[in-house]
Amino acid sequence: MKNLVLYIHGKGGNAGEGEYYKKFFPDTEVYGFNYKANTPWNAKKEFYEKVSKLSKEYNNITLVANSIGAYFSLVSGIDKFISKAYFISPVVNMERLILDMIGWAGTTEAELKEKKNISVDFGDDLSWDYLQYVRNNKIQWKVPTEILYGSLDNLQSLETIQQFARDSGTSITVMEGGEHWFHTEKQMKFLDEWLQNLC
Q1: Which of 192, 163, 16 shows the shortest CA–CA distance to 92?
Q2: Is the dihedral of CA 197, 70, 76, 34 positive or negative?
Q3: How many CA atoms are closer than 13 Å to the CA of 143, on its beta-carbon side?
């Protein structure tokens, strides 16, 4: 029985981060996926091709995914290849995030529709095509999944995460004072204990 842990990083991350998770899965190969996609339609093709290929080599694939890496996983149709998933600060409702970003940018959905793209100084440019794709491609996810969420996450509200959990039968662990990016000593200790208790 060949098992694999597939690690998918968030924005600004890299496949090498997967090394960190080897200690939680000592008898399992850990593979960090160095994907190129930066849109859900590109991710759908790239992720599906990669995971489909891996599924021919491994009997069980466990997914560990961060932030936008989790979102790309959710919309790429790879769920049929995944036996278990661990999401850390996942983006689970991209439409909500884009609408929030429109508000943060001081613009409107109507203006975005007219201009198609609007530059912002806090992240990726706003794209009308991206928003429409997200609306037209709803998440279908039925994999047994555990979510780690920080109460100070500035990208997805707890209510948004809870709604996703209700829809998909997912379990949530909330770290009070945790941020979207788990990086402080205290946050990493919490993450470690969360995974140790679940693995």
Answers
A1: 163
A2: negative
A3: 26
pLDDT at 199: 85
Supply the DSSP symbol for 141.
Answer: -
pTM of the full structure? 0.95
Mean pLDDT by 10 residues, the chain (199 residues): 94 95 94 96 97 96 98 97 98 96 94 93 88 94 97 96 95 96 96 95
Nearest to 66 by CA among 23, 16, 28, 2: 16
Residue 113, φ and ψ in degrees, nearest 5: -60, -40
User: Buried b / exposed e across 69-86, counting CB within 10 Å, b at 16+?
Assistant: bbbbbbbbbbbebbebbb
Q: What's the confidence (pLDDT) of residue 120?
A: 86
HSE value, Cβ hemisphere, 13 Å, CA-based, for 97: 22
Measured distance CA(185)–CA(35) in Å, rounded: 28
Q: Write the single-letter amino acid at 150.
A: G
